[in-house]
Amino acid sequence: MSRFRVAVDIGGTFTDIVFLDADGRLHIKKVSSSVEDYARAIVDGLREVFDETGLGGRDVVEVLHGTTVASNALLELRGARTGLITTRGFRDVLEIRRLRMPRLYDLTWEKPPTLVERRLRVEVSERIDARGAVQQPLDEADVERALDRLLAQGIEALSVCLLNAWANPVHEERIKSIVERRAPGLPLCISSEVLPEIKEYERTSTTVINTYVLPIVRRYLATLRAGLDGIAVRGPLLIMQSNGGLMTDAAAAARPMHIIESGPAAGVVGAQALARRIGFDKLITFDMGGTTAKASIVGALAQMLPDRVIAASEGGNTGVSIGGYHADRTPFIFVEFICSAWGGRPWADGLDGNANLFANMSLPSAEVTETEQPLEILCCELISDVGGPGRHRGGMSIRRAYRLTEDEAVLQVRADRHTFRPYGLYGGAPGKPSRNRLIADGRERELTAKVTMTPMRRGDVFIHDQPGPGGWGDPLERDPFRVLRDVANELVSLASARDDYGVVIDPSASVVDEAATTQRRAELRAARGWATPPVIRR
């Protein structure tokens, strides 16, 4: 009796099924995909092959499946409405990322939207240090308030990623137990289980992706498994991973992050194997489906350069240096360079929390820094209202705060745009200047842009705000509903919406008062003294 392995690939338009036995015999079937329930087309296609060949479920030893269900959910942004609970001061890690962009000098590049809107990212009070010791116990009341806030906003799944949870998961595990008690059945992923590795952005991003697609993938695979059982296909269901390997359907349902590029990976691996057999070592693969098209380059490289002008960004990157001696008199030195946002562009807002164009630098991980240096990173977050207002506003820059955990050290800083603000273009307003502050002995004092040989003692905190890039175009021409979105995400204040953009928002209903906005914009136009936007506003 022949035993067939069955391969299934689903796309937005067609579903392809291939039967192959040990003797090389093939049965091929192409059916229309059932977009509302992809599993149904697979089961119907298998049933048709059984009817045409006389085979049955007992003849199928295993089903190998490449799927785009997870990737389509990401690309179409139709995954679960996901919330995120994180350590206070690190709400914006998901948006700031590592600052780097994939194509240096490309002004047309857009940051992909975050899978968790800022309003659905909430902070709780707790702190575990880089060695796993509890510095600040978890405030469980804080957790319950955060959970209630997210549930009230209709989240469908929840991610939890706390700083240094890779070193000690106790706080994440406690949050998990609170969520399971207060919101049973809510899909939940904690970073210490999903990716227990150092580096907060990578761990947060991976955990959020897993959470975002988990309900969709889980439902799909459960439906498919039930359908296979219904036609007596009892063999294992194995899902293609993004790395070209296979995993069980149960494992994929728990960790769908591994199957984001399931279908495309299968195509590339197969194309490369075929190319080698016919003597090609350089190729481009193109896989076009009904929803997405995927391309892969093997042995080639393409580059593209831009030619457009944007408003002023943050100036030069900021250098922060903190050095001194440990208690045993061995020296330490910490050096970090920060660059964090773009100016408004003729066609889009400046990017929030992103490396500038001439220095595609990576932001060091807070967890790595705390592991290697006598410092505690208190926050890494976007600063509201810092970007210059414009039809396309300047990006929101980054605030970093450092607490010294050794007895003494010396601080040196080289910041930019402290006196001369990043300019706006074609009516766009300049951004806010950079700011340096030192909190010592319980008192906060302002520092200059260039700081040399400034002493720090244990517990002192240095805070740096990157300058805000300029805006592009008249801010009174900005779409009021884009202003409303920025206010909802706490990137623009109600005061700035009213005074800089002329948008009046009813905070109780979170809606734009269109009549009041029209009147306010008329008042601002009459008061500003120019009708034709100046090319440069400083």
Description:
The protein is α+β, with helices and mostly antiparallel strands and 538 residues long. The chain has three domains: 4-73 and 217-297, 2-Layer Sandwich (Nucleotidyltransferase, domain 5); 81-209, no CATH class; 318-528, no CATH class. 27% of the residues lie in helices and 26% in strands. It contains 13 helices and 27 strands. The chain has helices at residues 38-53, 69-75, 93-96, 140-152, 170-182, 191-194, 200-230, 249-254, 262-277, 366-372, 480-488, 494-499, 514-528; strands spanning 4-10, 14-21, 26-32, 60-66, 82-87, 121-124, 127-128, 134-136, 157-161, 188-190, 237-240, 246-248, 283-288, 293-298, 318-325, 331-338, 375-382, 398-404, 408-414, 424-425, 435-440, 443-447, 450-457, 461-465, 505-506, 511-512, 536-537. It has a six-stranded mixed beta sheet with strand order 3-2-1-4-11-12. Strand 9 (157-161), helix 5 and strand 10 form a beta-alpha-beta unit. Helix 1 packs parallel to helix 7. The longest helix has 31 residues, at 200-230. The chain is globular, with a radius of gyration of 27 Å.
